[in-house]
Amino acid sequence: MGARMTFGLGLNINESLIDVARKSIVAEGLGFDYVWISDSPSQLYGPIVAAVVAAKTFEIKIGLGLMSPFLHSPKQIAAAVNTLVDAYGPRFELCIGAGDRGQLEHVGIQLIRGEELTSKMVEAGEEIASILSKADCYEKIWLGAQGPMMLRIAKAFDGVLLNYSKPEMIEWAIREAGVARNFKIGAYVTSYVYSTPKPSIRKLAKGSAAVVALGASNGVLKRFGLYHKLRNARKMAEAAPIVEKILSQVPDEVMDDFSITMRISQLPMYLTQLKRLGVSHVVFGYPQNRSMQTVKELGRAISKLREM
Amino acid sequence: MRRADLNVGITTNIPMEYILKIASFVERSSAYGIWIGEYINRRYDIFSQASVVMLNAPSKTVGIGVTSPAIRNITTIARAAAALGQTAPGRFRLGIGVGGLQDLARIGTTVEKPVAMLRDASETLRNIWSGSTLNQKGKTFELRNYAGRYKLTEPIPLHFGVRGPKLLRLASRIADGVILSGPLPYIERAISIIKSAARDRSLTGEFRITVWLPTLIVGKRTKKQFAKVVAATVIADTTAEVFDLAGISEPAIEKIQRTARRRDYQAAARYVTEELLDSFTISGNPRQVCDVFHSTQKLGADEVVFGPPYGHPILEAIEEVVKTWARV
User: Fold this and answer.
1) Do A48 and B151 touch (CB under 8 A)?
2) Is the pLDDT reported for residue A266 higher than 90?
């Protein structure tokens, strides 16, 4: 039947550290295999959050990323991982990626494009891996990828984390990446899995999915017929921060492509589809982490899946 | 006179095994806290390391002394400090500085305008922490519609690790404290400059002067050789300005700096004289080390820092100094 699928919970780094730590303890107790801790320029520094989570939990694996080698140098990223591993043991995995172009521009970084970008990503991955192995540290390095150019360098890493949910898109991405069957494929997606939907949280899921869609590469959007549907919204988003007015321009069906928003009863079939495609790791992102209730709902669903 | 607060110093190239033991010991002891110095591009990330230290010494004050805005995006420093502030509310201090000259040279970085850099860094950090949305086009730290999505639970004291007179005066005016390192005659002059400049201070609140030299417990002649290597490391990173302030003009200094650049600190150590050793390190038995700490306290130091390199065995050396200081 193949290797067991692993499940992660993406933690919301905008919350207080105390709340993040509490949710990571609950996630571990519910049987999540991983928690993932992001690192974007406007949030708390990811490696410190990872240290706090590691100190408060026992054995749950901790994913760090996406970390951008354009925001931090590869040496700095490797040093963060080394610190965590030496202090808390080999519980960590790293995901690197270019990062959000707009967010990087906010902090004075102009992201390069095209082949120059992908070469730099490969170099960064190699440098980080080299530093870690010299330090006797062999944590996995994932690539956060979405568009065709980045997918084609995925094989230079230990795995690829995709940020869309639609099986058709994932299947396409795996073909583009051209990786072997045993290569690690993961999906780290906006999520809201529920027994009874709460409209306010559904709205948050739609908003989060829309943000991902608006930042998606032209290649992906064109390939799946989304480019024209999102053109107005993307134009508005270039000129101003993404707000309600812009999000309302994003069609509802986009949520299906960029989020796991479904009833608990639908989850087993969806995960089976992903597993057949070769996905071995699924990370449920915001707003699933919004409250203890939403975390526990998903956690109980996953526990039941494991019993099956 | 109130006794200066004794801290233990660590750096980003000390093995984690020792960092954890030192943090645990400090937590149980009468030491005030821990300062962490950054060697650029070594094994550990200073921010992650600080969080590990805080988690292992939860009741003690922990400070970064220092990290340089020349090697990181300013928003990374801001959000790392905010995370450390949340890890231990009210017990974190952030120190910034230009950075070690040798370290910066190795990565091909020079800081053309250190005064402007630290002034602008302070202003930018405090603005970010206050929750403002920043637009700083064409400035030292370019930001466009940037706002941090995190909150500070307590204000974060900002200390400067600086040496030259202009930077010392700047620190006195706009920082919450200063971390001084360099030859002892320089320390006296530096404190005097800081106190004179305090008249123009715009901030209210306490200003803390921390003195941090390489300190180690030595007894035998062979261990003095180790102390000389440490002294060579510091001398190699000391500017002419600091030597002038200290009134030190030994011909050996140029040889030490040249040898350190071309070969290594081990080779440079052979040129360290006894006078330079006494100026640039605090070494001896625990009582002798504490006597020198006491003398810096009389000059105006609010905090002193023991180690590295401590002496051997490391934990025993730290314990002896902490106990001796408590009895002074």
Assistant:
1) no
2) yes
